[in-house]
Structures are given as structure tokens and as C-alpha cells.
Amino acid sequence: MSGASVSGAPVVIDDLAAPVFSESARDVLALMDGAAGLCPLDSAALHAQATEETGLDDFGPRDYEERLDLLLACYRDVPGLTAAGQVNIYAQVVQLLKNRLLLADLLRREPGIADAELAPPVVVAGLPRTGTTHLQQLLAATGLFRTLPYWESLEPFPLPGEAGAEPDPRRERTALNVAVMNDALPHLIKMHEMAGPDHVHEEIALLACDFSTMYFETFTEVPAWVEHYRTHDQAPHYRYLRLQLQALQRLRPGGATGRWLLKSPQHLEQLPVLAEVFPDATVVVTHRDPAHVVTSMATMVAYTERMFRDPPDPFATGRRWADRLESMLAAVVRDRDVLGPERSMDLRFDDFMADQVGAVERVLALAGVDLPGPARTAVERYLIDHPAGHLGRVDYRPEAVGLDAAELAGRLSSYSDRFLAAPPVR
Which residue ranges traverse the bilayer (predicted)? Predict the structure, then answer.
């Protein structure tokens, strides 16, 4: 079963260099203008705010502070950093620090969490626009896995006064944030599906809690941060991710198999680390025409960057992400074989689209999991309810972000030769 599609003209985003906001979005931006002075990108102020909001003061191991200081310095140096960008960064860092406080408090109360068994996860590793989100949603639809809804990825651990509250205040806060985001960036949902607070999400925000992840470079240009991240071993930070997963499964078990379903583009350039920290994971590596992937990723970042800098520079963003994704694809060419065939597979986008249920079956078979009848029905229902393009489409044009498709194809040919030249899977 390949799934239906929805027709309709794709949207051309023609305001990347000179953004146009709706009236309601302008009202929100005006509020952020007034709030920016109360949101200093200062480590001491951020720590104090997190402590005030939680009543806690143990942030766990403090090695993250050097990384946080570097990150904040990079953001302060962003040319034309907007008030909205400053408020957004401030709020996100405060939340990440609160997550650290709440985890440390939970571990103090339940020290056995660190020794709890973590069943072998299934991990989807691939760049945006290669089918990672869609594959994750199909696997989640089976009900076989413990998944991470968007609200839980942002606020994994409840505040002391909110534990057990219904409706969960974390979900309500996330729903409000999603509504604001969709108003300010109405085309984002066409590029990256985010169907509300319950949308099954990736774990990159959990990686961000240890302040060592590519997540922070997706906001705007932070070259010193990228260099630091790329030149340091990420294994300690993946172990911190593992600890958070252990804590989350203690708080809220889920999935018929009890196994986590994980997904992030970051894993693509961290395959050796992934193999070290999650040695029994089943890993699916997704692939698609890299020129298209680079163009779409650069377009998405150029579109969202309007929230962080004024004026944005879509051509510079295009060049930056072409270079960045070239390095990530070089990493997967170099490291793909660290994952043996007994626990990993490659999935080409065209093969996936040609037989989506079959792709789910192959992933589950590799993981040693059966697809029972009700789970298959749930996958088929998901495909009916979520036809391709149901949220709209974007016309990705390389020239809009200063790129040339033929030049990209040449630069990325070693990746294409390795992963896209073989006969299709049937």
C-alpha cells in the first residue's frame, strides 16, 4: 500500500529575504519587543530563573556550563538578532535548565532509574525530507513502541506541583506554543509536519538538555558552536539522552513492546556514537536525492530564520546548510558500515513511497517484531487519513537560497553513488 496524495498547487515562498508577517503575528512580535529586556542571554540569569520556577538548585553534572556559555556568546553575536529571537532563545534555555533540575531531582528520589533496563530501541536516522517523519509516524501508528509526543519532548518531567495533573499543563502549554508558531510561520507545517502537541516527535530536544547537539544551529548562524559540537565526542551526551529515556519510561511506560521509537537527523553523523550508547538498537537509515534534500532543508531554515535575525540572508543560509549537509552525508558514507546488517537497513525514499506498509514490515522484521492484524489496520488507516500533501506543499527552488542543483549533485555524488545507484528494493 503506497498511500494516496492530495493535489493542489505548491506554495512558493517568495519573502525569504524580506519577511511578511500576518497582523496577529505582528502583534505577538510587538509583545516580544517589549519582553526582550527581561530576557538576558546571561548564564547566571538563566540559571536563577530556572531555579525560581522549580524551587530546585541541583542541575546535575556541571560540565555543560562551558558549552552553554559558548552557545550564549554565539547567540549574542548574531548580526541583527531580533527581540523575538532573544525571547525564544531565553525561554528555550530556561526550559532546558528546568529539565536538568527536574531530572536530577527525580534521580535523587529514585536512584534505581539509572540502572533500569532499556529495551532495544528502533532508531530512524536521516536528513529532513527523506521520509523520516512519515516512517516514524507509521511505526508509531502500530502502537508497538514507546513514543515521544511533542509536548513531552519539550517538558519531559513535570514540575513538582503538576505531577499527575489532568489535563497535563505541559500539553496545554505546548498547544499554545504550536498555535503561536503556526501563526508566525504558517508554511512551516507544509515543510515539517507538526500536528499539535501530541504529534510523535524526535528526541533532539532531549539531547539539547546537555547542551551539545546540532539543534541549536538550526535557529541561525552560530559557527563557533558548530565547530565545538563537531570536534567533540558526543558519546557523553548520548548517554545523558539514554538516562532521560530511562527516566521517562519509569514515569510513563508505553508501547506493546516497551521499546522506544527514536528519530533524529543528528544520528546520521553520529552512527559510531549511536552504536556505542545503544548497541542493541535497530537503525533505519533513510536516503533521497541529496540536491533536493539540501534545497528543502536550506529553505526551511531560511524561512524560520526570520524569527531570529533581521534582515535574514537566505543565500548565506543556503551556502551554510549546503556545506553542513555535505559534511553530514560524508559522515554517513564514512561510518555507515559500523552498523552491521543484522541490525540496520537502508531505505530509499522512492522504495518507501512505492510500498509504505511493506517498508514498515521490513523494519519490524529486522527488529524482530511481528505486525499483528490490528497494528497493520492502524497503519493503513493512518495512510488513508494522512495522504501525501494533506497539509500543503512547498515549491523548493534552489535559486531562492542561492544554490544550483547541478552543482549540488556534483558535490554530493559520492553519497549518491553509494546509496542511490543500486537497483530499487522490491
Answer: none
Is 69:43 a contact under the CB 8 Å cutoff? yes
- Other CB atoms closer than 10 Å to residue 26's CB: what's the count? 12
The grid cell for 25 is 503575528
CATH 3.40.50.300 is right for the domain spanning 121-148+254-425: yes
Pick out the chain residues at pLDDT < 70.
Answer: 1-7, 423-426
Long-range contact list for 379-383, CB < 8 A, 24+ apart? 379/138, 379/141, 379/142, 380/1, 381/141, 382/137, 382/138, 382/141, 383/1, 383/3, 383/4, 383/138, 383/356, 383/357
How far apart are the C-alpha atoms of 84 and 89, rounded to whole Å?
Answer: 9
Distance CA 202, CA 29 (A): 28
First to last CA, the chain: 13
φ and ψ of 343, to 5 deg = -140, 20
Q: Per the omega criterion (within 30 degrees of 0), is the bond before 311 cis?
A: yes
Read off the pTM.
Answer: 0.96
Which three-class secondary structure string do you get for the chain?
Answer: CCCCECCCCCECCCCCCCCCCCHHHHHHHHHHHHHHHHCCCCHHHHHHHHHHHHCCCCCCCCCHHHHHHHHHHHHHCCCCECHHHHHHHHHHHHHHHHHHHHHHHHHHHCHHHHHCCCCCCEEEECCCCCCHHHHHHHHHHCCCEECCEHHHHHCCCCCCCCCCCCCCHHHHHHHHHHHHHHHHCCCHHHHCCCCCCCCECCCHHHHHCCCCCHHHHHCCCCHHHHHHHHCCCCHHHHHHHHHHHHHHHHHCCCCCCCEEEEEEHHHHHCHHHHHHHCCCCEEEEEECCHHHHHHHHHHHHHHHHHHCECCCCHHHHHHHHHHHHHHHHHHHHHHHHHCCCCCEEEEEHHHHHHCHHHHHHHHHHHHCCCCCHHHHHHHHHHHHHCCECCCCCECCCHHHHCCCHHHHHHHCHHHHHHHCCCCCCC
What confidence score (pLDDT) does residue 186 get? 95
**How much is the pLDDT for 422?**
72
Phi–psi pair at 101, nearest 5 degrees:
-60, -45
Distance in angstroms (rounded) separating the CA atoms of residues 57 and 38: 21
Residue 388's pLDDT is 86
Question: Domain residues of the chain, as ranges?
Answer: 121-148+254-425, 151-199
Pairing verdict, β 122-125 and 282-287: parallel
